[in-house]
Specification:
The chain is 47% helix and 17% strand. It has 236 residues and is α+β, with helices and mostly antiparallel strands. It folds into two domains: 69 residues, Winged helix-like DNA-binding domain superfamily/Winged helix DNA-binding domain (Arc Repressor Mutant, subunit A), CATH 1.10.10; 134 residues, no CATH class. Strands 1-3-2 form a three-stranded antiparallel sheet. Strands 4-5 form a two-stranded antiparallel ribbon. Helix 2 crosses helix 3. It is globular. The relative contact order is 0.12. InterPro entries: ArsR-like_HTH, HTH_ArsR_DNA-bd_dom, HTH_Metal-responsive_Reg, WH-like_DNA-bd_sf, WH_DNA-bd_sf.
Length: 236
């Protein structure tokens, strides 16, 4: 008998609104306690405990124990990728809508997608890398690195020759659910975001997935990749 992936089981777990809210709140790659996840989902601690047990059993979450405390995180980057791609599916609304709340605007502008940068800034940076010939989009949802790209990343402080490719390659295309375009993911995307944070170009929020672009980062992105963060913020 040939084994088959149990897609229905994973889809059932994600389909519940409370469980989906918990999963989406973990898309920044951080681990969070059950109390925070219960608050994010708008459910009681008892209900949250039941949902978390199902998500753990289904492989969508893993748990870390520190003393008497338990912290939950996504089961891996593959889970984050599924969530982001599912979020991008849907009919585009043409009706007039209320302006998004401030936090939603911040997430649309720049946010963590598990371990890499997403949102309008993430897409714009990817466009800049492609326009300058540092990356080339390939047909299998990957990005190929060019010699100019290897040199540019090295000048920025990232030696891409030392990165270990995942089974999906060194750089992959991740569909951005707010922009409906691809941004840079994979080991290269993760290390590049880490570099931008350590260099003071980006600042991660302690309480959400939102990412702030610093004044140093605005100047650097404009100079290096032609990304006008001011215009993008106004558009958001």
């Amino acid at each position: 008998m040939n084994p088959q992936p149990n897609i229905a089981s994973a889809a059932f777990l994600i389909a519940d609104p409370a469980r989906a809210a918990m999963l989406m709140s973990l898309l920044d790659g951080r681990a969070r306690p059950a109390g925070e996840l219960a608050f994010a989902a708008g459910v009681t601690p008892q209900t949250a405990s039941s949902h978390l047990g199902k998500l753990l059993a289904g492989g969508l979450l893993v748990v870390e124990t520190e003393g008497r405390h338990r912290y939950y995180r996504l089961g891996g980057s593959h889970v984050a990728s599924v969530l982001e791609n599912l979020a991008s599916i849907g009919v585009t609304e043409v009706m007039r809508r209320k302006p998004p709340i401030r936090e939603a605007q911040r997430l649309q502008f720049a946010r963590c997608c598990y371990d890499h940068l997403a949102g309008r800034i993430g897409v714009a940076i990817t466009h800049g890398l492609l326009a300058r010939g540092f990356l080339i989009a390939s047909a299998d949802k990957r990005y190929d690195m060019t010699p100019d790209g290897i040199e540019w990343f090295f000048r920025m402080g990232l030696d891409v020759t030392r990165l270990k490719p995942s089974r999906r390659g060194l750089a992959r295309q991740c569909l951005d659910w707010t922009e409906r375009e691809h941004h840079l993911a994979g080991p290269l995307g993760a290390q590049f975001m880490s570099l931008l944070c350590s260099s003071g170009w980006l600042r991660r929020s302690e309480s959400s997935r939102a990412v702030q672009v610093t004044s140093k980062g605005s100047n650097g992105l404009k100079e290096q990749l032609g990304v006008d963060t001011g215009s993008l913020a106004i558009a958001t």
